[in-house]
Amino acid sequence: MPALKTACIEPIPKPMKLTPAFRLLPLALLVLLAACEQLGIEDPAKLLAAKEAEGKAVGSACRHALRAIEDCYTLNPKAQKAAVFTGWKEMDEYMRENKLDGVAPVVPRVPIVKPGAEPEEEEVVKPKAGEKATADKPAAKDSKPKAAAH
User: Fold this and answer.
1) Residue 150 located in a structural domain
2) Which residues contact 31 (CB under 8 A, 6 or more apart)?
3) Is residue 95 in a domain?
4) Are 48 and 57 in contact (CB under 8 A)?
5) Which residue in 38, 69, 119, 149 has the fewest CB atoms around it within 10 Å?
6) Which residues contact 75 (CB under 8 A, 6 or more apart)?
7) How many domains, the chain?
8) How far is CA 44 from CA 36, 37, 119, in A?
C-alpha cells in the first residue's frame, strides 16, 4: 500500500476567539448609524410629515383669515394642496362648531398678473372744486361687479 501524502491535507483552522473589542464592534456601528440625524442626514418620512403639517397650518390660517381656498393655493404655491385643503376644512369645521368669527386679513390681496398681460388700472375720479377728495374710494368702471374668469 502506498503511503498517504499528508502534504495535500490542510489542518482545520481553530475558530477565532472573539476579543472584547471585536464583540463591541456591532454595538459601536449601531450607535454611529443611530446618530445620522445629528449629522444632518434628513429622514424622508420626517420631511414628508413636516410638509404635510405645514400645509395643514397654512390651510387653517387661511380659513381663519377668511380667505377662500383658491386664494390660499395662489398665495402658497409650494404648499401641498391636499394638506392645505385638509387644514382649511378642519379649521372650517372647528370654527362652525365653536361659532367663531374669522379675522379679516391685514395684508391686502395682490392681483395676480399673468406674464404678457397688462394689469388693470383703476380710474381715479378727480374731485370737483366744491367736493372733498377721498382716497379710500376710487371710482369703479362699472356699477356691476365682474365675475372672475376661470
Assistant:
1) no
2) none
3) yes
4) no
5) 149
6) 62, 67
7) 1
8) 13, 11, 41
Assign 119 a pLDDT band (cuts: 50, 70, 90).
Answer: low
How much is the pTM? 0.49
- 3-class SS string, the chain: CCCCCCCCCCCCCCCCCCCHHHHHHHHHHHHHHHHHHHHCCCCHHHHHHHHHHHHHHHHHHHHHCCCCHHHHHHHCCCCCHHHHHHHHHHHHHHHHHCCCCCCCCCCCCCCCCCCCCCCCCCCCCCCCCCCCCCCCCCCCCCCCCCCCCC
Domain assignment of residue 101, yes or no: yes
